[in-house]
From TrEMBL:
<keyword id="KW-0443">Lipid metabolism</keyword>
<keyword id="KW-0560">Oxidoreductase</keyword>
<dbReference type="GO" id="GO:0005789">
    <property type="term" value="C:endoplasmic reticulum membrane"/>
</dbReference>
<keyword id="KW-1133">Transmembrane helix</keyword>
<feature type="transmembrane region" description="Helical">
    <location>
        <begin position="232"/>
        <end position="254"/>
    </location>
</feature>
<dbReference type="GO" id="GO:0006695">
    <property type="term" value="P:cholesterol biosynthetic process"/>
</dbReference>
<keyword id="KW-0472">Membrane</keyword>
<comment type="pathway">
    <text>Steroid biosynthesis; estrogen biosynthesis.</text>
</comment>
<dbReference type="GO" id="GO:0047024">
    <property type="term" value="F:5-alpha-androstane-3-beta,17-beta-diol dehydrogenase (NADP+) activity"/>
</dbReference>
<dbReference type="InterPro" id="IPR002347">
    <property type="entry name" value="SDR_fam"/>
</dbReference>
<comment type="subunit">
    <text>Binds to the short form of prolactin receptor.</text>
</comment>
<protein>
    <recommendedName>
        <fullName>3-keto-steroid reductase/17-beta-hydroxysteroid dehydrogenase 7</fullName>
        <ecNumber>1.1.1.210</ecNumber>
        <ecNumber>1.1.1.270</ecNumber>
        <ecNumber>1.1.1.62</ecNumber>
    </recommendedName>
</protein>
<dbReference type="GO" id="GO:0006703">
    <property type="term" value="P:estrogen biosynthetic process"/>
</dbReference>
<keyword id="KW-0325">Glycoprotein</keyword>
<dbReference type="GO" id="GO:0000253">
    <property type="term" value="F:3-beta-hydroxysteroid 3-dehydrogenase (NADP+) activity"/>
</dbReference>
<dbReference type="Pfam" id="PF00106">
    <property type="entry name" value="adh_short"/>
</dbReference>
<comment type="similarity">
    <text>Belongs to the short-chain dehydrogenases/reductases (SDR) family. ERG27 subfamily.</text>
</comment>
Amino acid sequence: MRKVVLVTGANSGVGHALCQRLLQEDDGLHLCLACRNPDRAEAARAALLASCPSAQITAVQVDVSDPRSVLRAAGELRRRFRRLDCVYLNAGIMPQPQLDVGALLSGLFSRRVVHMLCTAEGLLIQHDRVTADGLQEVFATNVFGHFLLVRELEPLLCDGDSPARLIWTSSRSAQKAKFSLQDFQHRSGQEPYSSSKYAMDLLSVALNRKLNQRGLYSSVACPGTMLTSMTYGILPAFVWTLLMPIIWLLRFLVNGFTLTPHNGAEVLPAEDARGAGQPAVRCPCWGHRLTEEENASRLLLISPQCVRQTGGSAKGQSLGVAHCTSTMQSTEPGGQVWLFRQRPESLDPLSKYLSTATGFGSTYVTAQKMDLDEDTAERFYHSLLELDTHVRATLQGTGAQS
Ligand SMILES: NC(=O)C1=CN([C@@H]2O[C@H](COP(=O)(O)OP(=O)(O)OC[C@H]3O[C@@H](n4cnc5c(N)ncnc54)[C@H](OP(=O)(O)O)[C@@H]3O)[C@@H](O)[C@H]2O)C=CC1
Ligand SMILES: CC(C)CCC[C@@H](C)[C@H]1CC[C@H]2C3=C(CC[C@]12C)[C@@]1(C)CCC(=O)C[C@@H]1CC3
């Protein structure tokens, strides 16, 4: 039987690149594109079919910011499919981003430059709005709509013969300090995007605790900074073009500039008959394969070449190697696809997996422990359940639930 993979936000950016890569890997998949705009979904379907005519590609209309639409789409999916093998929770927004140029310029000459350019910490605010259902739009789109979708699709995902997967497109911007359990929709702050991505990380951890025993596994992927309509909302395309030579140089310091959706999707595609195996460990700076000896000292995941580059300060503290953290683990670049290939049981539910670019632009995957605790994840999950009950009751009251 064909495997069925559902991707939200599949019509553009990293979602679309992911679909292309999945079909290159396995044209026997049934790919279902979950998009809010039917015309864009059809255009994406046509483009994917043009490059892979034998593929089976369908579309379902869903606006993940609108609970009614999510419930309707889930109902349609339950009628169409008996099982889903993998769901990519990828659709996302960053509305009206505003770049703090002053903070960028001063940050460029500070010790936190690498961290700043990887995470955008202190650089961006957004202007969120309230949806017709009284939800904060960023939270409703990036988190809650996907939470509802997963709950509605549980019968197709759990208790099958083989494990099913959820893969969240999170971000290096996910920030604990921007998230509050008391204000998980981020009504009062100006960084709803970072808050929503942190909420996503918490949710993935909680879902693993709840659903692993029923054969559903959740993982968090970070594609890195890519040029998509989201980043063109921060700076116009021509400015990105002008900045490109600087970014190419910066890539020797900052491993998060994956730049293209194709590179960003490195981490996303999942599972492989070949199984997980032991990943080859690569140097985070240069991407070269570490020797057995270097690999053996995992705690100091940095090669002598990098130690030389940074004058011997190999602990990842100095400017040049702040991206070489001890938690990093990597695999074959050009191994095409990663998360989808791993046996879900072999992944660490408390780590996120990052598409990472070397100074020379090749991509590979690294793992990073998430900055969270399971108790907070559990409490957040319960808050979401309460909101779920409230939203469904409201919809029933208005006669809108299907
Ligand atoms: N670009 C980057 O540097 C990074 C992006 N990400 C994440 O990657 C994901 C994809 O973003 P990216 O590819 O960059 O940007 P795009 O804007 O190209 O893609 C976003 C996708 O989400 C869809 N979408 C937005 N809102 C909704 C909604 N309410 N209902 C259904 N679909 C919706 C869009 O559909 P439509 O075409 O109809 O608008 C589009 O298909 C996001 O979750 C983003 O946070 C993470 C790290 C870095
Ligand atoms: C390269 C520099 C001289 C100029 C670029 C400055 C900023 C526009 C970028 C620096 C860090 C980037 C970043 C993102 C967007 C663009 C930057 C702010 C993201 C917020 C994009 C979406 C994400 O999910 C995370 C990214 C973190 C880094």
